[in-house]
Design brief:
CATH superfamily of the largest domain in chain A: MetI-like
Number of domains of chain B: 2
Largest interface: A-B, 96 and 97 residues
Oligomer: heterodimer
Shape of chain A: globular
Shape of chain B: flat
Number of helices of chain B: 15
Largest sheet of chain B: none
CATH topology of the largest domain in chain B: MetI-like fold
Order of helices and strands of chain A: HHEHEEHHHHHHHHHH
Helix content of chain B: over 70%
Number of domains of chain A: 2
CATH superfamily of the largest domain in chain B: MetI-like
Distance between the termini of chain B: 48 Å
Helix content of chain A: 55-70%
Number of strands of chain B: 0
Radius of gyration of chain A: 27 Å
Structural class of chain B: mainly alpha
CATH architecture of the largest domain in chain A: Orthogonal Bundle
Chain lengths: 356, 288
């Protein structure tokens, strides 16, 4: 009797659990799973938004158009009189032939995405959709550098806040301020600080302390755009990183440090032999979350650079809303999904994270 | 150098580092406040001044019309209203469905619990941008209004987050509470909403606040879904498309005033619930 009633209870519990889970899972199916399937399907079509042309199945065409790229060496331009490489009279730089001459035209036109130098030779990366190849590259650079600086700065802030001092509570409150600022707002705030004249904070400071000559157009100058964007993200996200690391620091028992002190270990040694190894799990979690988050960066890129330079997400937005290319946008969505998924697996494997 | 001197030096160094950190974290916000109190001619002064000064006399002069201007700006007010509606509705929906699911995941025994937990955890990391075009197609097919679309699609990040954090709170509640309620003849659902739910009120406040902030912050979906419905723009979109009352170029004075106005309430909320927010953040590890 008792047995059957407990079996009954268990069955009741099972039923109740399913009932309670249904709304949440139903919502997730409607807003995540179904659209994901839709994106996957649409990525194989040439669907255009609000257009009268009939949608056709185009197989892998969108992916080929987005991902095809080629690397070609640029030959130096030889000055006919001297027989040596010609030098640009205005910039004083060695001249190479124009990328357009070496990149393939048939059956598809490849346009230059970016150029780089190795051992004095110059190479051009050409792509059928150079903006997309660049957006992937921009996003990877952004992710690497912003996560790197956030981790270092976050660690420093966490170590400082973790020590005993007056006003520690106030300091923790201060840490939450950048986190509480809306991302779009923080991008606007920094955009104003980056003003290309001395009305902007950075140009004013640089000028006053004599770091710079004239003024920098941080958001128009191609070589300064990414560093500027990374600076905004690092400011906004370092506190979050610091909070996660701080939570990890507080799990380390104080006795360990006391014992190390007795043994005469220096503070530096204590850091490398106690703090860092014991911090590894929290650091790993923080790194994963930040990396996956940075890979889908949209807000700062869209607000500060819009169509000057794309991240993967802002290029996706551009294709969907401005170009109305639903098929292409869907293919981009799938590619982003695969990249992020690959990063997640890679991280979990290499850091040995326990998901429990 | 004596030991005491060394100690003082160390302390001084420590406070120096601390001061640099505080300056780094707060200065951009100070700059926004200071710029919001400048007129256009003060904003265009070169070199820029740390505090608002009169361009001719160099004396301190505060300009408050930027704040008046943004409250006379229909777009900004509409943005505040839209954001409040969207963020509040999505938070309530997320808490409602999330707490049901979290109770099941945290306190009940059933088959398939582990895969369900993993699904929720995976969903907290789901990249929203990948389903952008799919959601846009669904919304257009169903002809949903922009506000309704935002309320539902924001569940994509608020629901898994709330469920995940609440699950850990439910799990930490002692099993005895449930057992004694069962002995008293209460059904599992009665136990849930009469005993466990009140106990998790603090957790509900925390997760509610965090998902509210996330929704208040959201830009990608808001920008996409309001692209044809200007009336439904939320605060981030309104601030991006700010057109000024006075300024000929980008009205940075008004933009900074708007930035300050939308940031202060959140900062105040965050400071009041500081401890709980930190706990919730580290439990959910989701960036706001």
């Amino acid at each position: 009797m008792a047995k059957s009633s407990s079996a009954n209870l268990a069955r009741e519990e099972q039923k109740l659990a399913f009932k309670l889970l249904i709304p949440a899972f139903l919502i997730l199916i409607i807003i995540a799973l179904y659209p994901l399937g839709q994106v996957f399907y649409t990525s194989f079509t040439n669907r255009e938004f609000a257009s009268t042309t009939e949608t056709q199945f185009v197989g892998m065409d969108n992916y080929k158009a987005l991902l095809s790229f080629t690397v070609k060496e640029l030959d130096p331009v030889i000055d006919e009189e001297t027989g040596e490489q010609a030098v640009d009279e205005d910039t004083g730089q060695k001249m190479f032939e124009r990328p357009i001459r070496v990149l393939p035209r048939d059956p598809h036109l490849y346009r230059p995405a970016f150029q780089f130098n190795i051992f004095g030779s110059k190479y051009v990366v050409g792509a059928r959709t150079p903006d997309f190849i660049s957006s992937v590259w921009n996003t990877l650079l952004f992710t690497f550098f912003s996560v790197f600086f956030e981790t270092i700065l976050g660690l420093i802030v966490a170590l400082v806040v973790n020590s005993e001092f007056k006003g520690r509570g106030a300091m923790r409150a201060v840490m939450l301020v950048p986190w509480a600022v809306i991302t779009v707002v923080s991008a606007r705030m920094w955009e104003w600080m980056f003003e290309p004249t001395r009305a902007g904070l950075f140009n004013m400071l640089g000028d006053r302390f004599g770091f710079i000559d004239g003024s920098y157009a941080f958001l128009s100058d191609a070589s300064l755009q990414l560093p500027a964007i990374i600076a905004v993200d690092v400011w906004k996200t370092t506190p979050f990183m610091a909070l996660l690391i701080l939570a990890g620091l507080q799990l380390i028992p104080n006795e360990l440090y006391e014992a190390a002190e007795v043994d005469g270990a220096s503070k530096v040694r204590q850091f490398f032999n106690i703090t860092l190894p014991l911090l590894k799990p929290s650091l790993a979690v923080a790194l994963i979350f930040r990396t996956l988050d940075a890979l889908r960066v949209f807000d700062v890129f869209q607000v500060m650079l819009s169509q000057k330079r794309y991240s993967m997400a802002s290029f996706n937005y551009f294709q969907l809303i401005s170009a109305r290319q639903m098929g292409v946008a869907s293919a981009i969505g799938v590619i982003i999904f695969i990249i992020i998924f690959a990063f997640a697996i890679l991280y979990m494997k290499s850091l040995g994270v326990d998901t429990e | 150098m004596t030991r005491d001197q060394k100690k003082i030096l160390k302390k001084a160094l420590f406070y120096l580092v601390l001061a640099i950190i505080v300056l780094y974290l707060l200065f951009p916000f100070y700059w926004a406040v200071s710029s919001s109190l400048k007129s256009e001619s003060q904003l265009n002064m070169t070199p820029a001044t740390l505090i608002p000064r009169d361009p001719d006399t160099g004396e301190i002069s505060i300009f408050t019309r930027n704040y008046k201007a943004i409250f006379l700006n229909g777009g900004f007010i509409r943005g505040l209203i839209n954001s409040s509606i969207v963020a509040t509705s999505t938070t309530i929906l997320a808490l409602l469905t999330g707490s049901f699911a979290a109770f099941a995941l945290g306190k009940l025994r059933f088959k398939g619990k582990t895969p369900a937990l993993y699904t929720i955890l995976a969903m907290t990391m789901f990249p929203q941008v990948t389903v952008l075009s799919g959601l846009y197609a669904v919304i257009n097919a169903l002809n949903l209004s922009a506000r309704v679309s935002m309320i539902f699609t924001y569940l994509l990040f608020t629901l898994p987050f709330t469920t995940w954090v609440l699950t850990s709170f439910f799990r930490d509640l002692p099993d005895e509470i449930m057992q004694s309620a069962q002995v008293d003849g209460a059904t599992a659902f009665q136990t849930f909403h009469m005993i466990l739910l009140p106990l998790t009120a603090p957790a509900l406040v925390t997760t509610g606040l965090l998902s509210f902030i996330q929704a208040w912050n959201e830009y990608l979906f808001a920008l996409t879904f309001t692209s044809i419905d200007v009336e439904a723009r939320t605060v981030p979109v309104a601030i991006q498309y700010f057109s000024g009352e006075f300024a000929r170029q980008e009205p940075f004075g008004e933009i900074m005033a708007a930035a300050v106005v939308v940031t202060i309430p959140i900062v105040v909320l965050v400071l009041i619930f500081q401890k709980r927010i930190v706990a919730g953040l580290t439990a959910g590890a989701v960036k706001g």
